[in-house]
Design a protein that fits this description.
The chain is of the alpha/beta class. 33% of the residues lie in helices and 25% in strands. The chain has 13 helices and 17 strands. Strands 1, 2, 7, 8, 9, 10, 16 and 17 form an eight-stranded mixed sheet that branches. A seven-stranded mixed sheet has the order 5-4-12-13-14-11-15, sandwiched between helices. Strands 3-6 form a two-stranded antiparallel ribbon. A hairpin with a 2-residue loop joins strand 16 and strand 17. Helix 1 packs parallel to helix 5, helix 1 runs parallel beside helix 10 and helix 2 crosses helix 10. The protein starts with 9 loop residues before the first strand and ends with a helix. Bound molecules: flavin-adenine dinucleotide. The site of flavin-adenine dinucleotide (FAD) has 32 residues, from helix 1, strand 3 and helix 10.
Length: 400
């Protein structure tokens, strides 16, 4: 039974209250728009562990006035260190503290739930209308905007943003593409730092990545070093064989057999009651239908090897709000921005950029997971680079 009420019309309805949805809501509210977020879950929140925030995202967080808090609640790592997962040797390191000087913004690691809460608090303070327990079923184009249908309510807005993640319902209104399984699965564990005291090779000031055949392990501290975050990722033989029940803990242990002692000593600290199968999608061209447009993982889900999914969602939000308050703003009493032009420019700017990040993330994963002679060749390449060599990162981190 439907009992549609009519909530006040707003300028923008954001469907999905993840980091991407809240980022867009905050940015557009700061750009003068009335914004409502509709979130399916009963509470706003994030599941998971750490997030790396690169300068292309922290620059925007600073524009939104939340970077100081993100730094205060996170960690500013000194280096990104890559090691070989089989012999444990150091392959290369990148000076992360010089990103401030080179890119004008820091590299921060933060617990996802902390970043999410900081954005949620900023949305509340900015006056975003935040609605939970509201699973959107449909967005329909109407004269001058959209109707957003959920059980028991219909929201009217000039624009709807689909920020509903990898399994996006709103993307399925624009494209019939499917999620692509990488056959890789992630195990996470974020534990009080005392629990890793006995673990080998812990670095409390760096992001460390052990890369190896069909596997890798990422480690970094969170919450001023109170928590230690680890993510182990591996290719599942069961997934490759097409079995339903893939990524189970027995596969985790088998996949990491033969790794160096520092990697093996991490495995008991991972959560074993849940795991994350890794999917992305092919880049698509149709992000938009009239006043409905996609953002974040709904638009460009990517594998996590460049640590850019949330960073790109934040870039989306920064770009759209910039267009609405800048190039496509209109002056005069009662006149909102030229939404049609703003959404067109947003898609034109963001589509090629995010497609490149999606494609490069896949390549980077295959580079990390090389075996045999290819692994040796990869190690040679990595060992030859200097700690302050940023040439392969400029395209990603520099201001655009
Ligand atoms: C192992 C791993 C490590 C990662 N590490 C990093 C990293 O270091 N740095 C980085 O930048 N990125 C990283 N990412 C990627 C990052 O987590 C995602 O890209 C980011 O969280 C996407 O945010 P989003 O808001 O677009 O989507 P989501 O976080 O998926 O949010 C979607 C929201 O929409 C809601 N929703 C869904 N359907 C509906 C509906 N019909 N109606 C209403 N609400 C709905 C959901 O409940 C959810 O709250 C990593 C990912 C993984 C898996």
């Amino acid at each position: 039974m439907t009992n549609d009420t009519a909530p006040t019309a707003v300028d923008v309805v954001v469907v999905g209250g993840g980091i991407g949805g809240l980022g867009n809501a905050l940015a557009l509210t700061r750009a003068g728009q009335r914004v409502r977020v509709l979130e399916r879950a009963d509470e706003f929140g994030e599941v998971g562990a750490g997030l790396q925030m690169a300068p292309n995202a922290t620059r925007i967080l600073r524009d939104w006035g939340v970077l100081d808090q993100v730094i205060a609640e996170g960690v500013l790592p000194k280096h990104l260190v890559m090691r070989d997962a089989l012999d444990g040797s150091e392959l290369t390191r990148l000076d992360l503290q010089r990103t401030q000087e080179r890119y004008g913004a820091p590299y921060v690691v933060i617990h996802r739930s902390d970043l999410h809460r900081i954005l949620l608090d900023a949305c509340r303070a900015a006056g975003v209308d935040l609605v939970t327990s509201c699973g959107v079923k449909d967005v329909v184009d109407v004269d001058g905007g959209v109707e957003v249908h959920s059980p028991g309510r219909t929201d009217h807005a000039r624009v709807a943003l689909g920020a509903d993640g990898l399994g996006s319902l709103l993307r399925s209104q624009l494209s019939n593409d499917e999620q692509v399984s990488s056959a890789y699965v992630a195990y996470r564990g974020a534990v009080p730092v005392e629990e890793v005291a006995e673990q080998q090779g812990i670095a409390m000031t760096d992001v460390v990545v052990y890369i190896g055949p069909r596997r890798h392990l990422v480690q970094y501290p969170l919450r001023h070093g109170e928590i230690f975050n680890q993510v182990a990722v591996f290719e599942s033989p069961k997934a490759l064989r097409g079995e339903e029940d893939w990524g189970t803990p027995d596969e985790l242990d088998a996949a990491f057999a033969g790794s160096c002692p520092a990697v093996l000593s991490a495995l008991p600290r991972l959560w074993r009651d849940r795991w994350w199968r890794m999917y992305d999608r092919e880049p698509i061209t149709n992000w938009r239908r009239g006043s409905l447009v996609l953002t974040g993982d709904a638009a460009h889900p990517m594998l996590q090897y460049l640590a850019q999914g949330a960073c790109q969602a934040i870039e989306d939000a920064g770009v759209l709000a910039g267009l609405v308050s800048g190039e496509h703003a209109r002056s005069g009493p009662g006149s909102g921005p030229d939404w049609d032009a703003a959404l067109g420019s947003y898609v034109e700017l963001r589509r090629p950029r995010t497609a490149e990040v999606q494609t490069t993330a896949r390549w980077w994963g295959s580079f990390w997971h090389r075996d045999g002679a290819e692994r040796e060749a990869r190690n040679e390449v990595l060992r030859s680079r200097e700690v302050d060599d940023y040439q392969h990162l400029d395209w990603l981190y520099a201001a655009r």
